[in-house]
Amino acid sequence: MTEIGTTEWVMARCDDLTRHSARPDALERVYLSPEHSAANTAVRAWMLDAGLDTETDAAGNIWGRRAAGGTPQRPGTPGEPALVLGSHLDTVPDAGRYDGMLGVVLAIAVAHRLRDTILPFALEVVGFSDEEGTRFGKALLGSCAASGQWDPAWWDQADADGVTLREAFLRFGLAPDRVGDAARNPADLVGYLEAHIEQGPVLEAQDLPLGYVTTIAGARRFVLTVTGEARHAGGTPFARRRDALVAAAHLVTRIEELARATDCLATVGDLRVEPGAVNVIPGRAELTLDLRGRTDAGRDALWERIAAAGREIADTRGVTFEHTETHRAPSTTCAPRLIEAVASGIAEATATTSDPLGLWSPAGHDGMAMDAVTDVGMLFLRCRDGISHHPDEHVDAEDVGVALDAYTAAVLALAKEIG
Ligand code: GLV
Ligand code: MN
Ligand code: MN
């Protein structure tokens, strides 16, 4: 085992976490799965090694904490506000090993580096349980619970096997009626500071290892359903068809066209057809839609145009168009004092005289939920070719070393400002 808190330790722990996967050939770890539980167990042990007391909260998030003076302390202890460092431990299907996990492991390494340092706040580390929304469509479930924004309407959202969120809670050993216990009190928090790979090409193009985040794009997700009529592929002339898949295909290309005319992003990432047989005209198509915009107003205006296009295509093709919203998170502005702390951390770690680069994040992060209860700041690390949500996701160990210094320096800069 490499020495805790070093760059090598961080890289090795990100490798270790790939073992906790639902698939032998790929990394997939979703909310409330056995792999989620195993990852929490691994992370708990590393938190203990770093001098933190630990606890799993009522939504399956794993927390660690030390008091301002440095001694391990029960997470969530009131009376001494905490700076929270962390990220998420869940993944998309066939994921890379750094999206989320790197931020959790870096946070533990920073806590270890500062274990003998007296701070003007308690320090907590969190591994959020669901940022991606892979299993239930609704994203940020872990941080929504921690920020007191749990909506009981989510309990009936089901995964691909029909297991509802409520059932999954029970199977994991969590009590649905206790989920409110995970909510953090704003008075007990100093801020939430997350390190994450950029998941885009900007830092690499500028030849920079690190940047700070200015804002996080607002997001909405939907399930779109097109219903036509399943009939015989040979016996049904074109004039008699109500083909749900052809209508859905028109909608997919229209969505891209509409989004390209704005500064928003729209993605249809999944499309399922029923009954799904070679000689049956598709009677039903279900599509997912992921929308992101720098502003919530821009994103919402695009959605109105997409919904209108869906209705228009449905009218023309004799099918019906319905939609269900599964996720919504507002665009989030990072807090000036955390931006300053991160920027000064970057400047110190990179020893450059030029100003650190600020970026907006089209990717979603737990800070979007945590913003409801505390200030949010983010440190971005360069990743190769901007690739993420793919097994080729890669960060250079050298950049991770610089990030570790910058993250630690950012916490100390904030401590100086507050203390
Ligand atoms: C999370 O990675 C998201 O932006 O969907
Ligand atoms: Mn992420
Ligand atoms: Mn992700």
Structural summary, described in words:
The protein has helices at residues 7-17, 34-49, 101-113, 141-146, 165-172, 202-205, 244-260, 296-317, 336-350, 367-370, 397-418; strands at residues 53-56, 62-66, 82-88, 122-128, 189-197, 210-216, 218-227, 265-267, 271-274, 284-293, 320-329, 332-333, 358-361, 376-381. The chain has 419 residues and is α/β, with parallel strands linked by helices. Strands 1, 2, 3, 4, 5, 6, 12, 13 and 14 form a nine-stranded mixed β-sheet that branches. Strands 7, 8, 9, 10 and 11 form a five-stranded antiparallel β-sheet that branches. Helix 3 links the parallel strand 3 and strand 4 (122-128). Helix 2 packs parallel to helix 3 (101-113). The protein is built from eleven helices and 14 strands. It has two domains: 7-217 and 331-418, Zn peptidases (Aminopeptidase); 218-329, 2-Layer Sandwich (Alpha-Beta Plaits). It is 33% helix and 21% strand. One manganese (II) ion (MN) is lined by residues 92, 99, 132, 389. One manganese (II) ion (MN) binds next to loops.
